[in-house]
Amino acid sequence: MIARYKFCLWLVERLSIRRMTLHEIMEEWRRCGENIMGMELTPRTFSRYRALAEEIFRVNIECYKPRNEYWLDADALADADEWSMSALRLHSLCSMVGMRDHIVVEAPPAGSELLYVVANACREHRVLNFSYSSPYNPDRDCSVIPLFIRLFKQRWYLIGQPVGRNFLTTLALERMKDISTGECATPTVNPDPEEYFSDCYGVIRQHEPERVVIRAFWPQNKYLKEVPLHASQRVVDECENWTDFSLYVRPTYDFKQELLSQRDKVAVISPESLRNDMIEILESMMGRLIVLMNERIGLIGQIGQLGLFGRIGLFGRIGLLLFLDELDYLDKLDYFYFFDCFLFDFYRAHKRLWARCFLYYSISMS
Predict the structure, then answer these.
(1) CA-to-CA dists, residue 234 to 194, 197, 205, 250, 264, angstroms
(2) Measured distance CA(333)–CA(325) in Å, rounded
(3) pLDDT in tens, 57-86
(4) In angstroms, what is the C-alpha Rg of the chain?
(5) DSSP annotation of 109
(6) Separation between Cα atoms, residue 304 and residue 294, nearest integer Å
(7) What span, in angstroms and rounded, lies between the C-alpha atoms of 338 and 334?
(8) Eight-class DSSP state of 158
(9) How many Å is the maximal CA-CA distance in the chain?
């Protein structure tokens, strides 16, 4: 990365934190560690690089001339520009002597090597021809008019319109083979990228969007306030031990996956259809777990391995289910939650496997 691009990145970062005069900018750049080549910054050089930074990162660097003071119009910075700035920032840090041993990153998104070809085809409206390999369907040849690309969960996806069709499809870049560009074509369906995925959790766009209410138990409710599941997430009710969130999303496969990743710290309140879907998934998981354990040591042997407090937890939940049969879904969750808290100090988490399974099974059968 040459010195001028390093300076542009450094300038945008510094001005996003605070306002600075030209003198302060020149002095800090002279002393900063990223100025490895000792590049001298003059007022004329600064003017050129300021314009370059505005062009690269699509930002506005404002100036108050009486004090020769500069600041960044942060509201104009789009998500894509922030993401590219983050990538450049990481590259700059890693290029500094000794910094590679202090930075650990995830593997780069799959399919990144195709980004340049796909992005150019999007810009020039050229048809992409490729062979598409998927574990769910036989390999097939595709011709797609590319519209835009999206990064989600460390994977790049292309959203485009198949040639001769009147709908959009989403394709993973790492599954594309033998890619080439064809003639220019005009899509008949061309939505705004932000609006297209506005009510989606990820890249799956199935089902109609609806209001979803979930209950997150401590400490996951605190975490979900810091890292929302979706841009539409709002707090609708809360107490010391839990928080209810509402979201306006499509109840898709990847959204259910995310809910399941929260383990027992999140429960679906509404809609009932989604709640029933989650119960069926948990019931299926429990059934497969029972089959697996029975194959190894048998049901009775597994219960015997729980130990004293494990058996108390198992049969205690069954007893609660019998006595709480008339209560609704959320009241039962509260009773089971407090029962869990009571048992937590008595036995370790690995001895609560069957107790957890019967908790989900008890709720699903109510």
Answers:
(1) 20, 18, 22, 16, 21
(2) 12
(3) 777 888 888 888 998 876 555 555 566 666
(4) 27
(5) P
(6) 13
(7) 6
(8) E
(9) 83
